[in-house]
Amino acid sequence: MTNTTTASAVMVPHLDRTSGLAQLVVDGRHFPVLGVELHNSTSSGTAALSHGLEIARKVNATTVLASVTWEALEPTEGNYDFSSVDKLVSQVRKAGLRLVLLWFGAWKNGSSSYAPAWVKLDWQRFPRCVLQDGRLSDTLTPFGPTQLDAPAFQSLVEHVEQIDAEHRTVIMIQIENEIGLLGASRDHSEHADRAFHAAVPESLRQSLLRRPGFEGERRSWADITDDPLGRDEAFMAWGYATHVEALARRARTVSPLPFYVNAWLDSEIDIDVEGFAVAGGQVPGTYPSGGPLPRVADVWTSIATSVDLFTPDVYFGDPDKILPAFAEMSRGLFIPEQRRDQSGVGTVFLAIGQYGALGVSPFGVDSADWEDLAALEDAYALLSAVHPVTSHPDGTRRELMGFHLTDAVPTVTRSLESIDLVITRAAGIGVDPAGSDSYGMIVNLGDETLLTAGRGFRIDFKDADQAWQVGLEAVDELEPDGTVARMLNGDETAGGSAIIHPPLQPAESPFPIPMSHAHTGMSRCRLYRLPRTVAPGAV
Length: 539
Description:
This protein is of the alpha/beta class. The chain contains twelve helices and 23 strands.
């Protein structure tokens, strides 16, 4: 694809929620963000950026997510250097891709490492969060007296409008990155303590009334003692959300682009990777306390009203719990960071097909061995081919169903009116599917006709009321352009009873009769029904 357009034809990217969950509109059409996020420092180097963009094109991505940092943008206070922004936007545009800018400003992954030196070295003017034991952290407090990165962020957005308004290479902007405090459930600095003992804002009080301990006539955060950890996390969420809202509100005066914030997730288990602080767990502070998680959605959605989306970075956890929670939080779903492996590809199909995600973005593809990206390359090719038929002619979204099958979830059932679609892993006759990831998406084309895309699955059909037998009238394997590659039947459909998509890399089967594993990854089928029984003499 190309994104070169004339000034008169340019439409501002925006979110469309008319059919339910938000979808991104670019150049007047729903645009699938099949993204890749480059490593944190890639955009600062010419060779590294060129390599990252080459990989993005090879995996069939539509979009690149890349950072712009406060330290590079404002190396001395009040003096802005936009050279890194100009290079990034220009190179992405030349590559024929779209760009989501990631603002690494006052906070990135629970710390303030991307603040400029003139901020880092002046800890009195730019106070830090203080942990419960009195230790000074390297994280800037959101309760301090300065605007921190607000002027720099506004200048960045103004500059993007100046250089990109006639092209719209930039389609969204992320504010900060995995915001929150690590090491304590709340900030204990003098600035934070002052806010902690002040009255809870009246506008926020109403949103918090459903929480245990927030009922009654309590006036300050300190007066809430029933749920101290929940109180502390809500307090930090208020501080961070207030700052993010200030950035988004100022930027909104100069740009209509969608803004979002991303979240480092809490976890049901502790995650320990030697030599790296991954945190995890369920106690705020072991994950960044105050980040935009569903558990503090009441705070973030009440305060950060100029933010368009609250998004999860999905590396672990149950996606069937995580994804719908974030979709509900902001009436839309986008995954700006996730795994790049085959398990991550399964999340891609589940997010887009089952939970209406407007896009996904595996992280760090620019450091992967090419063979490790085969599943992602294939997935993005399939999703690009399927995308044109995911909408009705009037632009409304068709019914989609997505799935990701693993050892933990070896089978799922989806429903099409009164027909149950029983989906299992298809590893081949005599081949144990254990350890494999199967994934796919189903598009309801109407009149009991389905389009399926993905790898390593089998779909059997059952009448939910058990009054009818459901059969396959016809199954066509499709090329990416929608033309018929093969008319499938016999062995390739389990004797005309199921849709079968072999794995991308099938294992050798011990079955003595050869079986075909060739498949484009796309099929179209039409169903028909027969009565399960007939009365004597009826036929």
